[in-house]
Amino acid sequence: MIGGSANTGDSLAVIDQLIYREKRLTWDEMIEALKDNWQGHDRLRQLVINAVPKYGNDNDYPDN
């Protein structure tokens, strides 16, 4: 359960920051990448991995 909480926090931070705040990504792009299991969406995958702070790294944004 602990690992799931961190993954959920990271996922919500990505949605909030990239889709709603920065508008660098649309819901349609995110859903398509997830349906494709990220195959053919390397640029988007790297953006999701690297552009948003992760839970548990002393950053209040994803920790909240």
Secondary structure layout plus pairing:
Elements: H1 2-21, H2 27-35, H3 42-50, H4 60-63
Bulk shape: globular
Can you write the helix and strand succession as a string? HHHH
- Mean pLDDT equals 85
Radius of gyration, whole Å: 12 Å
- Tally of helical runs: 4
How many strands appear in the DSSP assignment?
A: 0
SS content category: mainly alpha
In percent terms, what proportion of residues is strand?
under 5%
Helix content: 55-70%
Low-confidence stretches: none
The description of the largest β-sheet is:
none
What gap, in angstroms, lies between the N and C termini? Answer: 17 Å
Question: Could you characterize what this model shows?
Answer:
By secondary structure, the protein is mainly alpha-helical. It is 66% helix and 0% strand. The protein is built from four helices and no strands. It has helices spanning 2-21, 27-35, 42-50, 60-63. The chain is globular. It starts with a helix and ends with a helix.
